[in-house]
């Protein structure tokens, strides 16, 4: 499931950069990105399977807006993960609730003290591949291009990561931004569909996770 999030982060960093100057990209990256409207979703296909991201709801808590995001995948990324977070792109150590449902298993919910333990563990062992600041610093704008993928033809911004060599094509008119991604290790990822009618794939009442139960993936 986290492979799908890594793919999304690459595209979102490109969308948020938005400027050809490296310094400006570092300053703006991650700040200008906005959530799609509630119900917005996008699905991508890659060599390792598929991934779908959706914003299925928002809510107010203690004067701030929280967003309920859901990620699901096919192939080796099978299953559903739902997180409630205050911003986007999100970090798992900011999650206020997490629900997972694996194929053939009931939905499991992580909240309260168990969630705080997971977040503390993430802060102690951060994942550098999801570090927005360092990823922003290596982005460079190649140019504006028209790209055709299974979901259609889009006017995109083409960017390249100077550190990894990964390339992304992004559009602010696509939910979650990513149209195409080509990585040396991950291969090609393309947008196959988008929509505005997302519903949660979580079924049944989630079971609260406790000590000794299967924990959620880290960051």
Query: Could you tell me how far the N terminus lies from the C terminus, measured between alpha carbons in angstroms?
Result: 10 Å
Global outline = globular
Task: Please outline the major beta sheet.
Answer: 12 strands, mixed
Mean pLDDT: 77
- Helix amount: 10-25%
Give the low-confidence spans: 1-5, 7-32, 214-219
User: What is the CATH C-level name?
Assistant: Mainly Beta
Helix/strand/pairing category: alpha+beta
Radius of gyration: 17 Å
| CATH 2nd-level architecture | Clam
| Tally of individual domains | 1
CATH topology: outer membrane lipoprotein receptor (LolB), chain A
- Strand-residue proportion: 35-45%
N to C succession of SSEs = HHEEEEEEHHEEEEEE
List the strand order in the largest sheet.
7-8-9-10-11-1-2-3-4-5-6-12
How many β strands by DSSP? 12
> Number of helical segments?
4
Describe this structure in words.
The protein has helices at residues 2-17, 22-28, 112-124, 132-137, and strands at residues 41-46, 49-61, 64-73, 79-85, 97-101, 108-110, 139-149, 152-161, 167-170, 178-183, 187-195, 207-208. With 219 residues, it is an alpha+beta fold. It has one domain (2-208): Clam (outer membrane lipoprotein receptor (LolB), chain A). A 12-stranded mixed beta sheet has the order 7-8-9-10-11-1-2-3-4-5-6-12. 34% of the residues are buried. Residues 1-5, 7-32 and 214-219 have low confidence and may be disordered.
């Amino acid at each position: 499931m986290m492979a799908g999030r890594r793919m999304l982060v690459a595209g979102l960093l490109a969308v948020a950069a938005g400027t050809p100057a490296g310094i400006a990209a570092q300053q703006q990256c991650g700040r200008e990105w906005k959530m799609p409207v509630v119900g917005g979703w996008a699905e991508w296909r890659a060599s390792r399977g598929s991934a779908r991201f959706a914003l299925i709801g928002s809510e107010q808590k203690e004067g701030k807006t929280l967003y309920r995001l859901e990620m699901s995948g096919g192939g080796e990324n099978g299953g559903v993960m739902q997180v409630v977070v205050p911003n986007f792109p999100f970090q798992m150590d900011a999650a206020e609730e997490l629900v997972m449902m694996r194929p053939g298993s009931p939905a499991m919910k992580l909240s309260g003290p168990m969630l705080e333990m997971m977040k503390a563990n993430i802060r102690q062992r951060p994942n550098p591949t999801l570090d927005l600041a360092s990823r922003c610093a290596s982005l460079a704008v190649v140019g504006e291009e028209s790209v055709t993928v299974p979901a259609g033809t889009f006017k995109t911004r083409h960017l390249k990561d100077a550190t990894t060599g990964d390339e992304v094509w992004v559009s602010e008119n696509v939910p979650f931004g990513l149209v195409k991604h080509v990585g040396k290790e991950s291969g090609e990822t393309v947008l196959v569909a988008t929509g505005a009618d997302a519903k949660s794939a979580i079924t049944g009442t989630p079971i609260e996770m406790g000590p000794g139960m299967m924990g959620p993936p880290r960051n």
